């Protein structure tokens, strides 16, 4: 019963490797794409390390699934040993990615606050960084770092002298001039909190996916051990002579 159960688990795990390759690729690409959208606000490029690890794992998923499938059917001790070693390496990598994700999830807040303030102060309405700032405010429905009043301290605000914020702060583009004497037409929430919340949510989602696959790998390693030990016990049969 233990052998049949272990074989079933390993075959399902092999199939899961092929499915996981697609899933992990999606998660890793989604995290990287999200960070690239806001890379001007992030100084620490190592924050992408968890996503890179996920993609590296996904690259070898199909091959690993094939090894597990063939080894389980043939009950090859060499193949099962290789499968166990591979699962163990991936398990360690996933745990490392989970820990790194937890560390950088807390670091995002301080990183965003510093870099966003720097980009915010350089706003001139024409540069690439200004375009990114406008895009951020439009997509996240926010205005300023903490709130729309932050614009009053910028050089751009003093240079224009029209007592208004960028049009990207407007809740509706029609009939909105961005003037501060019409605050009901402006987004009231700051972009720092919105960006922090979005990035932390992405990291949290990736961490949950990694944790789920790590648990599956643990049961896979247990099944390999059961199947290998069972084969060792049944390797020799007693001989009876009349």
UniProtKB/TrEMBL annotation:
GO terms for cellular component: plasma membrane. It is a multi-pass membrane protein. This is Tetraspanin. Keywords: Membrane, Transmembrane, Transmembrane helix. The chain crosses the membrane at residues 47-70, 82-104, 202-227. Its main location: membrane. It comes from Chaetura pelagica (Chimney swift). Belongs to the tetraspanin (TM4SF) family. It is found in: Membrane. It comes from the Eukaryota.
């Amino acid at each position: 019963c233990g052998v049949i159960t272990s074989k079933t688990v390993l075959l399902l795990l092999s199939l899961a490797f092929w499915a996981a390759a697609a899933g992990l690729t999606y998660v890793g690409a989604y995290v990287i794409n999200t960070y690239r959208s806001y890379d001007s606000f992030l100084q620490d490029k190592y924050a992408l390390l968890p996503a890179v690890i996920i993609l590296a794992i996904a690259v070898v998923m199909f091959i690993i699934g094939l090894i597990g499938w063939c080894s389980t059917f043939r009950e090859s001790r060499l193949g099962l040993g290789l499968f166990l070693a591979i699962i163990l390496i991936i398990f360690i990598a996933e745990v490392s990615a989970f820990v790194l994700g937890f560390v950088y999830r807390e670091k995002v807040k301080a990183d965003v606050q510093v870099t966003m303030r720097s980009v915010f102060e350089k706003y001139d309405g024409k540069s690439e960084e200004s375009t990114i700032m406008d895009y951020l405010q439009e997509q996240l429905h926010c205005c300023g770092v903490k709130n729309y009043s932050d614009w009053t301290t910028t050089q751009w605000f003093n240079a224009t002298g029209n007592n208004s914020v960028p049009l990207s702060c407007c809740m509706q583009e029609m009939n909105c001039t961005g003037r501060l004497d019409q605050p009901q037409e402006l987004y009231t929430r700051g972009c720092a909190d919105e960006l922090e919340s979005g990035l932390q949510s992405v990291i949290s989602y990736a961490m949950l996916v990694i944790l789920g696959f790590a648990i599956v790998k643990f049961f896979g390693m247990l099944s390999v051990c059961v199947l290998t030990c069972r084969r060792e016990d049944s390797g020799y049969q007693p001989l009876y002579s009349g």
